[in-house]
Design goal:
Cytochrome Bc1 Complex, Chain D, domain 2; 2 domains; binds heme C; single chain; two-stranded antiparallel sheet
Length: 375
């Protein structure tokens, strides 16, 4: 009770004097600027969509605020070169606009940095789905040899404790100033889970619920035609389905014939199983217009390149998914890669539809922005 009074008094004091709290910086590291009343981070997930929030780590405004600061803080890398946000940019749907990203020592990552929006609705992470559990996942980039290099994770709490602002932020989030790896992971998972995106034109139109039919009548002619192709002739929704335009089931994975032989075998490599070579998780297409380049290796620069691949570029691979074969997996003599026979106009319409899955709220709102850059 006492704590609440002290905090609210501080809050009112801060509000009357200024809108934001600018913390004092220590040494050369900059300090974050945060609103005196925390932003609201609670999320509203549509019915029928999984919510992986564990009961021990619900999103709180102070927890997600701490997560925001951690996410944008370069001190999480061993040499202060990289923050999470160095490879996951807000304006790019929290992906990186390059095929491969630069690690803390300038080395390239082995895969394309992916969007992390709607992570609350996934049950596995990375292109190959090798990790489940967001709390467990978020510390992996910190320890990663190429990404952030903090191989001895236990030095991080001590490093953060030396700043003027972290002890206070941890106290707000967890009740005491103690900084632990566990708390770092909990706060970052809260922040990432709060990046929830359901305010796109595609949502408004209801196409995902109605298999391509724009029941709200909000799409233009090209977008409507594209939606019909996506859910119909082009067969995209056989894989990118549901409210998140992701796999049909939680474990839906596929080889989409990008190559005759893959250099990165994805799930086949990590499971050491040739029958899974070239197989990857079916990613969500949320905010896809913002997250170029595309695929696990960032090989396609534009959505048009992606659609052209499905239209006429799918390669014959022993593990090619049945949904991309002429036989559709029903046997028969023709097991070759399917050609969609889309016209240029169809391709453009499909791209126009893909652009409607963009939600500017997450990619522009201050609560997801860099607190170290805020004025
Ligand atoms: C140097 C670039 C880089 C940095 C720094 C980085 N990431 Fe990533 N991130 C990637 C790449 C590349 C992938 C895909 C890796 C793979 O599939 O093997 C990825 C994948 C992810 C995913 C999986 C998303 C999904 O839907 O499966 C999440 C979540 C994520 N990163 C969060 C973070 C967090 C949190 C941090 C900071 C602690 C961070 N990243 C730092 C490059 C980076
Ligand atoms: C057989 C299942 C399947 C079908 C059908 C399918 N996709 Fe995909 N899609 C995938 C998988 C798996 C990936 C990731 C592949 C990789 O990176 O190796 C992917 C990746 C993508 C990406 C890139 C995602 C990113 O974040 O880089 C886009 C865009 C895309 N698909 C759009 C479409 C469209 C449009 C169609 C219909 C023309 C379609 N897909 C049909 C399974 C499928």
């Amino acid at each position: 009770m006492k704590k609440i009074i002290v905090f609210s008094l501080l809050g009112i004091g801060a509000l009357t004097m200024m809108q934001c709290t600018k913390f004092t910086s220590t040494g050369s590291a900059p300090a974050p600027t945060l609103p005196s009343t925390a932003f609201h981070y609670a999320i509203n997930i549509p019915n029928g969509t999984i919510d992986n929030t564990p009961s021990h780590n619900p999103i709180s405004d102070d927890g997600a605020t701490l997560g925001r600061v951690l996410f944008f803080d370069k001190q999480l890398s061993i040499n202060n070169a990289n923050a999470c946000a160095s490879c996951h940019h807000q304006e790019n749907g929290f992906a990186d606009p390059v095929a491969k990203s630069r690690g803390f020592e300038g080395e390239l990552t082995s895969r394309n940095s992916m969007s992390i929006i709607n992570a609350a609705n996934e049950n596995s992470y990375f292109w190959d789905g090798r990790t489940d559990g967001l709390e467990e996942m978020v510390l992996q980039p910190v320890r990663h040899q190429i990404e952030m290099g903090m191989e001895k994770m236990d030095v991080l709490p001590a490093k953060l404790a030396k700043t003027a602002y972290y002890p206070e932020l941890f106290k707000k989030a967890f009740g005491t100033t103690e900084i632990t790896s566990d708390r770092i992971s909990l706060a970052m998972a809260q922040f990432i889970r709060s990046m929830s995106s359901y305010k796109s034109l595609a949502d408004e139109s209801g196409v995902a619920r109605n298999w391509g039919f724009d029941s709200a009548n909000v799409l233009n002619t090209a977008q409507k035609a594209g939606a019909q192709l996506f859910f119909g002739q082009a067969g995209c929704a056989n894989c990118h389905s549901g409210t998140n335009f992701r796999g049909m089931t939680d474990n839906d994975i596929a080889n989409i014939g990008l190559d005759v032989a893959y250099t990165d075998n994805g799930i086949g490599a990590f499971k050491n199983d040739d029958s899974k070579n070239g197989v990857f998780r079916i990613p969500s297409l949320r905010n896809i217009a913002l997250t170029a380049p595309y695929m696990h290796d960032g090989r396609f620069a534009t959505l048009k390149d992606v659609v052209n691949h499905y239209n006429k570029g799918v390669n014959k691979h022993p593990n090619l998914d049945n949904r991309l074969r002429n036989s559709g997996g029903w046997g028969g003599s023709d097991d070759n890669p399917r050609r969609l026979n889309l016209t240029d106009n169809d391709v453009n319409n499909l791209v126009e539809f893909l652009k409607t899955i963009t939600d500017k709220e997450v990619t522009t709102h201050a609560r997801f922005s860099d607190p170290f850059a805020a004025k």
